[in-house]
Amino acid sequence: MKLKIIGSAAGGGFPQWNCNYRLSREVRAARTGLTPRSQSSIAASADGANWVLFNASPDIREQISNTPELQPDTDGALRNSPIKAVVLTNADVDHIAGLLTLREKQAFNLYASTRILDTLANNPIFRVLDETLVNRIELPLGGTTQIEGPDGPLGIEIETYAVPGKIALFLEDNSDPVNFGSDDGDTIGVRIAEPGADAGAAVHYIPGCARVTDELRSRISGAGCLLFDGTVFTDTEMPDAGVGAKTGARMGHIAMSGDEGSLASLKDVDVARRVFVHINNTNPVLDPASPEREVVARAGWEVGHDGQEVEL
Ligand code: MLT
Ligand code: MN
After folding, report:
1. Which atom of ligand 1 is least distant from the CA of 231?
2. Does residue 94 have its Cβ closer than 6 Å to ligand 1?
3. Whether the CB of 201 sits within 6 Å of ligand 1
């Protein structure tokens, strides 16, 4: 299986369009070591020709331009795409807005939890994806699904499970001050592998996660690779930076640091390779020269970047 991180940033990207925080400023000024990152998405393929996209980012058009594997086959039909299926892990704007770019009468299968599919069904703009061409297929929580394209199985099997998280920002119910109306299936994690592959050849992709539970630890144990929520380094990073009032927890994202953070809570889990994705533009690990980057590197974590291939 081939796997590529095509967008390693959180919502907003790096730099974010309206952000004048030091990191966005420095990457715009092309300061050495800082690399622009597009919004959150990965792609996987069993045969190198047919691809499954996990999340459809608002930057998908540019991501396809930067990824030859995702471009139309020059020997194929006048309209064709190697993207045969899309899997969504939540209904946040950074994960669904790219669906609007995938219009123009192209067939593919769209997989998501019931909660996420309901969000799409309740937003008439997603009718641009012609339902006679784009099948919407429900993913079970805690079950296994063989991903198929319009012409049959793609040789990729996924296991989908609810993770602690939050409903999409634009759906928050303020009459529920604790969970904002969130329910199981609003945020999911995905185990991605070829059917019958050893655990060591499986990847877990979890770009949004509020907390690491014992259940999650045992689920990912033994995996070849973990691509995990790297939104913020400290929970109060956005207020501390002065860019906004929200903590990581309020956004449904675990911090990297701290006793309950991802570095500490995943420390003893048996995973061969661990890579942060969905990195917010305030996260100091974006700077390879930062002490925070050294902390994550010493803990055995990579900071994902656009175009990064994960060999399994
Ligand atoms: C998130 O990951 O918290 C969201 O992408 C935020 C947003 O929708 O802007
Ligand atoms: Mn997001």
Report:
1. 2
2. yes
3. no
Atom of ligand 1 nearest to the CA of 207: 2
pLDDT range class, residue 187, cuts 50, 70, 90: very high
pLDDT tens, 45-79?
A: 999 999 999 999 999 999 999 999 999 999 999 99
């995990």: which residue's tokens?
A: 228
What is the position in ligand 1's atom list of the atom closest to the CA of 166?
3
Q: Which ligand is nearest to the CA of 7?
A: 2
End-to-end CA distance of the chain: 7
The residue behind tokens 């139309």 is 72
pLDDT given for residue 73 in this prediction:
98
Segments making up each domain of the chain, as ranges: 2-311
Question: Above pLDDT 90, what percent of the chain?
Answer: 99
**In the chain, which ranges are continuous DSSP H helix?**
22-28, 60-65, 93-96, 114-121, 214-220, 237-241, 262-265, 291-298
**Which residue's CA is the nearest one to ligand 1's atom 9?**
11
Given this model, what pLDDT does residue 311 score? 82
What sign has the CA pseudo-torsion 70, 75, 79, 80? negative
Any atom of ligand 1 within 6 Å of the Cβ of 10: yes
Tokens at residue 227, please?
A: 């691509």
pLDDT in the model for residue 312 = 82
Ligand 1 mutation pick, 93, 278, 280, max ligand atoms within 8 A of CB: 93
Cβ neighbours of 33 (radius 10 Å)? 12
Summarize the confidence of residues 185-213 as an average pLDDT: 97
Confidence of residue 118 (pLDDT cuts 50, 70, 90): very high
Ligand 1: nearest atom to the Cα of 93: 8
Contact 306, 38 (CB under 8 A): yes
The CATH superfamily assigned to 2-311 is Ribonuclease Z/Hydroxyacylglutathione hydrolase-like (3.60.15.10)
